[in-house]
């Protein structure tokens, strides 16, 4: 008997969530190994708030078996995007990539409450435009209206009014377009200045350039870089991220660079994953691949280059917090520790759960303040058990959030970037210090 084709076209499951590849979803074998490393599963003790549970939802959405109901979106929103599950997964599930696609689907098709929608958009615009961020933070310097600003922030983000770090600038700090190498030139590198760093942590950018120069690198900081787009990816605004990626790719092309270096875990991870933003037949795909292949975290780059030994002793007890997008997103764990161990007199001690998310997670601490505060508190307690004088990390979000969590703790350590300590050990103090 002849078999006839059905009249109705076969359902292509991936059409329900464009961009989400169905074969990627099938890689999850539901073993549950990832559950024990997932911070939200640990806090909420619910399968729906675990990687496996969220992957079930993603698959059900892709197959058209469920719709974007508030409870489904809630469980997907509560994910930190920390990607500890990827590190643990024996099937190499591309969780982060799928989360970005499903979040893009949510933002395009789900109707959020106006206040939530406004908060998400406002955060994205503020944190990806340094001049706007500087302007928005300026009133926090004026005691008379500081209270009003905090009340407005609370109305939008809940009880999670942001703290402005010491050393923040009223206007984004710019770096020299070219900084010459000290001694024999070993490499010519491009540096990603970022959008939060020039306002909140200009001293970290200055320190990074100094450390690179001290290691024989000529440092080029192209103008017009803009934001790398990582925050937009995290929030599910993939069109915004593509526009930002194209601008950044253009800024770093044709400069004869040996590498493009970042000092922010989130940015480095985002740029390394640029190829995911563009389909294989998109003309931007090879350009995205070229930049991704040349991009390295500054600790990764220096460790591979072979750092010159720093001469200045820093006799401090130090612990290291692994930023999620460095440890889980890029697999960079050993290199920052190797660099810190080069510093004479510095004692590096490990704290418990050093690679557990601190709760900052992009803008998670603004959008999910209750969970973020619980993770912050856990992080602070773990750090305090080893009594360090300094906590070192490689991401601005972790830097600010852990610093805020230390407030009120007796003898609390300072938080610093790996490059700040190294710059000091190379005898190069920042202008603001
Ligand atoms: S560890 Fe990987 S394969 Fe196992 S349940 Fe988690 S995501 Fe799925
Ligand atoms: S990204 Fe982090 S919070 Fe989200 S499912 Fe994976 S481990 Fe859990």
CATH fold name of the largest domain: Rossmann fold
Strand content: 5-15%
The unreliable regions are 1-11
What is the number of E strands? 9
Q: Please identify the top-level CATH class of the largest domain.
A: Alpha Beta
**Rg over C-alpha atoms, rounded to the nearest angstrom:** 22 Å
Which ions, cofactors or small ligands are bound in this entry? iron/sulfur cluster
Tell me the CATH architecture of the largest domain: 3-Layer(aba) Sandwich
State mean pLDDT (0 to 100 scale).
89
Quaternary state of this entry equals single chain
Q: Helical content, roughly?
A: 40-55%
Distance between the termini: 85 Å
Major sheet: 5 strands, mixed
Task: Give the overall form.
Answer: globular
**Structural class by sheet pairing and helices:** alpha/beta
Query: Number of domains in the coordinates?
Result: 4
Strand order of the largest sheet: 1-3-2-4-5
- Counted by DSSP, the helix tally is 22
Structural features, described:
The chain is α/β, with parallel strands linked by helices and 433 residues long. The chain has 4 domains: 13-109, Fumarate Reductase Iron-sulfur Protein, Chain B, domain 2, CATH 1.10.1060.10; 114-157, no CATH class; 178-303, 3-Layer(aba) Sandwich (Rossmann fold); 309-425, Rossmann fold, CATH 3.40.50. The protein has helices spanning 22-25, 39-44, 51-62, 70-77, 84-88, 95-109, 114-127, 130-137, 143-157, 197-200, 202-214, 230-235, 238-252, 265-272, 284-294, 298-305, 324-330, 334-341, 364-367, 369-384, 396-406, 418-425; strands spanning 178-179, 187-191, 217-220, 259-262, 295-297, 317-320, 347-349, 390-393, 414-417. The strands form 2 sheets. It has a 5-stranded mixed sheet with strand order 1-3-2-4-5. Strands 7-6-8-9 form a 4-stranded parallel sheet, sandwiched between helices. It is globular and about 65 Å long.
């Amino acid at each position: 008997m002849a078999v006839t084709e059905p009249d109705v076209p076969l359902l292509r499951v991936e059409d329900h969530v464009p961009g989400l590849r169905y074969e990627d979803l099938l890689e999850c074998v539901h073993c549950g190994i990832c559950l024990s490393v997932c911070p939200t599963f640990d806090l909420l003790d619910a399968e729906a708030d675990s990687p496996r549970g969220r992957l079930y939802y993603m698959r059900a959405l892709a197959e058209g078996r469920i719709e974007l109901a508030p409870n489904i979106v809630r469980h997907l929103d509560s994910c930190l995007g920390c990607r500890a599950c990827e590190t643990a997964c024996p099937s190499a599930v591309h969780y982060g990539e799928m989360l970005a696609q499903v979040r893009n689907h949510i933002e395009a098709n789900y109707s959020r409450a106006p206040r939530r929608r406004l908060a998400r958009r406002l955060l994205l615009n503020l944190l990806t435009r340094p001049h706007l961020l500087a302007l928005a933070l300026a009133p926090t310097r004026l005691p008379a209206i500081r209270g009003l600003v905090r009340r407005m922030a609370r109305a939008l983000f809940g009880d999670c009014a942001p703290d402005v770090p010491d050393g923040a600038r009223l206007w984004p700090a710019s770096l020299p377009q070219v900084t010459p190498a000290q001694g024999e030139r070993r490499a010519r590198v491009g540096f990603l200045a970022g959008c939060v760093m020039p306002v909140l942590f200009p001293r970290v950018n200055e320190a990074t350039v100094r450390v690179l120069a001290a290691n024989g690198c000529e440092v080029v900081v192209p103008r017009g870089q803009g934001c790398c787009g990582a925050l937009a990816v995290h929030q599910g605004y993939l069109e915004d991220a593509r526009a930002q990626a194209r601008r950044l790719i253009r800024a770093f092309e044709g400069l004869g660079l040996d590498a493009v270096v970042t000092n922010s875990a989130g940015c480095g991870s985002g740029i390394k994953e640029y190829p995911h933003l563009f389909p294989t037949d998109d003309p931007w795909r090879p350009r995205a691949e070229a930049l991704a292949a040349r991009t390295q975290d500054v600790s990764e780059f220096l460790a591979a280059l072979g750092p010159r030994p720093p001469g200045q002793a820093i006799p401090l007890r130090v612990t290291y917090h692994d930023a999620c997008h460095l440890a889980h997103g890029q697999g960079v764990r050993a290199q920052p520790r190797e660099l810190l161990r080069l510093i004479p007199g510095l004692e590096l001690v490990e704290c418990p759960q050093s690679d557990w998310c601190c709760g900052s997670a992009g803008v998670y601490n603004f959008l999910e303040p209750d969970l973020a505060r619980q993770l912050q508190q856990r992080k602070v307690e773990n750090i305090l058990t080893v009594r360090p004088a300094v906590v070192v990390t490689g991401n601005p979000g972790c830097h600010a959030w852990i610093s805020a969590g230390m407030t009120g703790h007796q003898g609390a350590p300072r938080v610093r970037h790996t490059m700040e300590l190294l710059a000091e050990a190379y005898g190069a103090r920042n202008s603001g210090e």
